[in-house]
Design a protein that fits this description.
Distance between the termini: 42 Å
Number of strands: 0
Radius of gyration: 17 Å
Structural class: mainly alpha
CATH superfamily: Flagellar protein FliS
CATH class: Mainly Alpha
Strand content: under 5%
Oligomer: single chain
Amino acid sequence: MTYAEGRRAAQAYGSMAVQTGVEAATPHRLVQMLMEGALEKMAAARGHMQRGNIADKGANISWAISIIEGMRASLDLEAGGEIARNLNDLYDYMGRRLLEANLRNDINALEEVMALLREIKAGWDAIPGLLGQQ
């Protein structure tokens, strides 16, 4: 097996593992997975930014923005009340800061959004424990 064949096989396996994980996930876990994915894309973008790889930086930031916009679009602003409205505003802010990070190669803006999302994720991750679930 060549390197390219091995790499394609590994990517296919990884894709199947993600698909299986998504299909078996609870709604709570799906949100966790989205947050993890956005953080991974921002971390990759930071590395590309540091190395001057503009195209891959932009692609990863764009992907992170898409994930955050997806989370934003899934908010039920009526049922979620003030919390949903605050998250909506925060996700909007995060998207704008990511655009700025991309346009200006601003690693501080990128890291700001990563810190905000980590804080949201920490709260989200604590929910099952607060409800007596694991």
